[in-house]
Amino acid sequence: MSVRALAFFPCEMLLADPETQAASAINIIEDVTFSQFPGGFGRLSLFAMLERDSSEEVNQKVSIDIKISFNGEQVGSQSQDVVFPGNARKTKVRLFMNGLALGTPGTVVFELGHGGSTIASYNVQASAPQA
Length: 131
Description:
The protein has no helices and 11 strands. The protein is an all-beta fold and 131 residues long. It has one domain: Immunoglobulin-like, CATH 2.60.40.10. The strands form 3 sheets. It has a 5-stranded mixed beta sheet with strand order 3-11-10-6-7, with no helix packed on it. A 4-stranded antiparallel beta sheet has the order 2-1-5-8, with no helix packed on it.
């Protein structure tokens, strides 16, 4: 079975309507400037919208992998099973982190993987203020 990412990004907070399961992202993280280093992010959330190629299997479970690297060095990873409810072709994934410390300016890369392949990535450039 093939899974692809329709959307994947980090944000400060994710909200889900308990009745409809509609998701809202608060403050999607783009390139950031920290007033000093070490710096970093407080609480982080990652959102992904996944689509599978077939909806024949009911409540199909797939495994996804999240990897976070900073300046080319892996600083975090997590695996999670995701269920496509009923015969749904799409599902939402919400992951939460308690922060990410950065010692220097650089590039943070968030990667979403499935089946040993990267299906989405998102880069954030963290910089110091221009003097």
